[in-house]
Amino acid sequence: MSRDRRRRTFAVAAAAVGATLLLGAGGVAAVTSASEQSPKAAPSPQTERATAVIERGDLSVTATLDGSIGFGGAEPVSVKAKGTITWLPAPGADLGRGATALRVDDLPIPVLIGKTALYRPLTSWGMTGADVSMVAENLMELGYLQRADPKDARTNSAFRTAVRAWQTSLGLERTGDIAPTDVVVLAADSRVAKVTTRLGDAAAGTPFTASTTTRIVEAAVPAGDAGLVGAGAAAEVELPDGRVLKGTIRDVGTAGEGAQSQVRATVDIADQKAVAEVDAGAVVVRVVTKTVTDVLIAPVPALIALAEGGYALQDESGRLHAVTIGLIADGRVEVAGDGITADMTVVTAR
Q1: Mean pLDDT for each consecutive 10-residue tract of the chain (350 residues)?
Q2: Number of other CB atoms surrounding residue 177 within 10 Å
Q3: Same domain flag for 107 and 194
Q4: Model pLDDT, residue 94
Q5: Residue 344 class from Cβ within 10 Å (0-12 exposed, 13-18 middle, 19+ buried)?
Q6: Which end of the chain has less neighbouring CB within 10 Å, N or C?
Q7: Where is the signal peptide (predicted)?
Q8: DSSP letters along 117-165, please?
Q9: Among the three residues 241, 265, 290, which one is the final residue of a domain in this structure?
Q10: Could you say which of 167, 196, 212 is where a domain stops?
């Protein structure tokens, strides 16, 4: 094969591999047997050729997602207290179990954590139900009620004594009763996102919004990867300062409607301490979407597209070896063919 023809062949290879990428990196291109009959080309002693070594290993395709780190979406917090707001928390304030959500008529409205709202006053003896269990579990966690199965809780003497002790610690009247107007119930520990009311306003309503205390990443999934990125997949998150943390795709869904719709992924970060000082910022998420293991790998520029179709690799002697190609990722390609082995040296384009 002449030097001019080889130059043309390398140019064809680059275009052909680009087309392969567009059609799907997982496809395999067939190579005609004509490549085995290609004549040897004796290299000129003065010509220095770039070479590369065939490797055996794993090859992965990675999707890159642009995202942002933060506390996720905020939800309005419902307050049922009657009276006038005399104190409000600042944005960023923690709303954990027992914390003061706000003050109404200068009395604290504490936070309880639970999956069930307090939907009735607990004023009678012997009451049971999901709301009683929720309050009992909070009293146990706060140290006012002896630990037991919350499902068995009832408004007995021990329950009411625990409520009175809690009320005393808050500076409230010791009634032993508790009502929906006395507390704010949240599903989990939260933080104030935005205050939407002012001092002096009526308390009942949604005076602020709250988000989780856990930092997460929300990222846009490129259209071409929408069907490849799924819940449970491992991810790497590159922070604004360059650090890379491990994450897991929590869920993938569509946000927006019509032409404005976009596939978005939520990524959980296991090491929350590592992002304790990162309140917000742009991040890059990388997710492996396909992997092949224990295969022969060559650099893409080493591929030669043949006139009769297919691809070949050229060894140091100038002989062409027909190959089939598989996965293409990061400038490397999975190859297979007669005479192709690990540690084999092949000619590559500069």
Answers
A1: 40 42 36 42 59 94 93 94 97 96 98 97 96 98 96 97 98 97 97 96 97 93 86 94 94 80 90 89 93 95 93 93 93 94 91
A2: 16
A3: yes
A4: 94
A5: middle
A6: C
A7: 1-30
A8: ---S-B-STT--SHHHHHHHHHHHHTTSS----GGG--SSHHHHHHHHH
A9: 290
A10: 212
Tell the residue number behind the tokens 């139900």, with chain if given.
129
Same-domain status, 198 and 132:
yes
Could you tell me if residue 80 is inside a domain? no
Task: Provide the phi-psi class of 43: left if phi over 0, else alpha when psi is between -120 and 50, else beta.
Answer: beta
Report the half-sphere exposure of 26 (CA within 13 A, side-chain side). Answer: 8
Neighbours of 120 (CB within 10 A): 13
Is 171 in the same domain as 238? Answer: no
pTM score, whole prediction: 0.65
- Helical segments of the chain, H only: 3-23, 130-141, 157-170
Number of structural domains the chain divides into? 3
Tell me 40's DSSP state: P
Residue 73, helix vs strand vs coil = coil
Find the CATH number of the domain harbouring 242: 2.40.30.170
Strand 107-113 with 100-104, pairing: antiparallel
* Per-residue tokens: 51: 């070479």
- Cα 127 to Cα 177: distance, rounded to the nearest angstrom: 12
Cα(64)–Cα(288) distance, rounded to whole angstroms? 9
Angle, helices 157-170 vs 130-141, to 10°: value is 60
The domain spanning residue 327 has which CATH number?
A: 2.40.420
How confident is the model at residue 49, as a pLDDT? 81
Residue in 26, 18, 19, 52 with CA at minimum distance from that of residue 297: 52
Lookup result for tokens 């005479």: 339
How many angstroms from the chain centroid is the CA of residue 220? 10
What is the pairing mode between strands 107-113 and 184-186? parallel
What per-residue confidence (pLDDT) applies to 258?
Answer: 72
User: Residue 251 sits in which domain range?
Assistant: 64-71+214-290
What the block records as the tokens of 286 is: 């990388």
